[in-house]
Structure formats: C-alpha cells, structure tokens
Amino acid sequence: MQKDSRPTDVHSGPSQGAIDQFVTGMAAFWQPVARSEDVTEHAIHPVELLGKPIALARLDGVLTAVLDVCRHYQARLSLGEIATIDGKQAIQCPYHGWAYGHGGACVRIPQFPEGRKIPPAAAVPSFLVAETLGLVWVCLTDRPIFDLPAFPEYEDPAFRVVTLDEDVPSKTASTRMIMGTLDDTHFPWVHEGILGERDKPAPPDHTVARDGSVLKVSYETMQPASLSSGGTTGADVGIRYDNEVHMPNVIRLAKDTPSGRYIVWLATCPVDHKTCRNFWTFARDYDLDPAQDEAYRAFSTHVRQQDKPIIESQRPWLLPPFWTQIEMPLRPGDLPIIEYQKWLEELGVGGEI
Ligand code: FES
Ligand SMILES: [Fe+2]
Description:
Blueprint: H1 16-26, E1 31-35, E2 45-49, E3 52-59, E4 62-67, E5 81-85, E6 88-92, E7 99-100, E8 106-108, E9 128-132, E10 135-139, E11 160-165, H2 174-182, H3 187-190, E12 207-211, E13 214-223, E14 237-246, E15 250-257, E16 260-272, E17 275-284, H4 293-313, H5 335-346
Antiparallel strand pairs: 1-10, 2-3, 3-4, 5-6, 6-7, 7-8, 9-10, 11-17, 12-13, 13-14, 14-15, 15-16, 16-17
The protein binds FE2/S2 (inorganic) cluster and fe (ii) ion (FE2).
C-alpha cells in the first residue's frame, strides 16, 4: 500500500490556533453581512460575523451595528425592538428594556429612578458599518485594511442585474468559497457540458497580477453554448475572462463573449471559520428582457448546486498553509488560486495549522 505522507489528522479540522488566526486576520477587512433590503426601518436584523452575533438597525435612518448581547444580563438585543427614547430611536432589549443608541451607549434603564445618571459602562460595543452594492458591510476593527470593493456593472443601466442568496449558509470557509469560484480547472469536471468538456482538461494560459487590493486573473478559453456564454447554438464559444478578487472576500468574474459581457460576482461573509453566507449578483448586457431573469437565476442556481457538495467536502475547512504540503497545488493550472492563497497568508489569514 502506498504511504500517505499527509498528517493523519487531516480530516479532523484546524487547531484552535488556526481558527483564532483566521478570525483575527479576517476581522481587519470589510465583510458583507446582509442584503440592504433585509435591514428595514422597523426591526432589528441579527447577523453573525466571525463568530460574533451582531445586531443591525436603522436608527433614525442611520445604519448601526452593535454586539447583539445586552450589557445587563447578556440577552439577545435583536429579540427586542426599536423604541423611541427622548425623540431618538434606540435598540431596546427584550428582557428588562435597557435601550442603546448610536455608538452603543445605553440611553435608558427603565429601573433607574428619574434623574439618576446612566453609568458610561452601560454600553455595548459598536462596529464600523457601511452600505454599498446592495449590501451592508461591517468591519470588526477600527481601520479596514482595504476600501470597499467596486462593481461598475452593478449600477450601469446597460446591465440587467439578478441576485441570488442561499437559504442556509454554506458549510465551508469563505476563503475556500473564493478559491472555488476563482478556480477554473474544475469547469470540465463539475460543470461538464456547461462550462467545459472532460476531453479538454488542459488549463488556459493565465495572466496573474496584483493591483492595489485586487488580484487580477485573465485568460482566454472556449466553452459550450450556455446563458452565461451568450451562446444559442451548440457550437463552442470563445470567451475572454477578466477576473478580480478584491482581497480577501469578494470576487468578480467578467466573461466577454461575442454576445456581450456576463458578470458573476460573489461577496462571501465568514460567519465563522467553517461557515459562510454567500451573496451572489449576476449582470449581463445582452438578452435584456426582464422576463429572462428567472432563466438566468435558475442557470446560476444549478451551477452553484453543482459546486456546493464538492466545496463543502473539502477538509480541513480552513485552507492548510502552504508549508504543511497537506494540499498539492499544481502549476500552471492552479496558478490563480496559488497566488490568492499566497496573498492571503501575507495578509495574516492562514499560516497556522
Ligand atoms: S438583559 Fe437586557 S435589559 Fe436585562
Ligand atoms: Fe464551479
């Protein structure tokens, strides 16, 4: 029997040190946590980011993100409601009614007698919060390493935009999710007949470069006719891909075909080290009839469902660092994902096992 040189605990998951490093590393970036439309004026919206429960609310129209744990006896604030205290909206705990305004300071303790001062320690941590591209973003540190990502086609009226969210989060690390979306040598295997053919497994000739906060990957290839290649006949279609990973958690695949441009865009939220919530957006500047949107959504859902069991099967959930040689990346085909992982490790996300 051939000897397997990998560590025997390869399936048992990462160590606590590796998990802590992932959480600390990812905390320094803007992370997508919710669709803007799901955070309404009337309710507190709970999310989870890197293991932290976070309550989102629009207080007097201004977005607020605080730790979803009451300072009094640690109840979930998001089970409460938005109340108006002295003319200003606040997040009110369901347990004893303490209320928190912008910045997390407590603005009301109902049990206090009239006139007694609320102690400054009666506060919950608040986080940087922003809104762009139809999503709410939170950063758990005071200074995000990179700016929020750009996505020019999202607001371009020449494009039809379709979004897609998962009913339940994916059981994998957000970094694996980005790698799986950047990886193209799986196309003929997982998406046979849609994005590739098994009798043509040769990888394309990738150009890979860093530009500011973005990893750029370009190549040319042929793919079967499909909605995403703009093809209507059975003939293969020539495609140029210009892909960008906005480090470390957003990816945009731009497919230019004779029919036009098709964008696959993913912002993935690290709910914890082995769970991610994926916000997909697709854009096209051809076949613009809104009645076609459902066909594009169904197409994307099908492709995502092909990927899901494979990506969720990868162990350990966190990327094992290069030095462990637990995984075996191969050049030249794996060059884009090798470069992604290399940069991740430089940014402090990964390195421990
Ligand atoms: S636990 Fe929130 S008010 Fe008591
Ligand atoms: Fe895939």
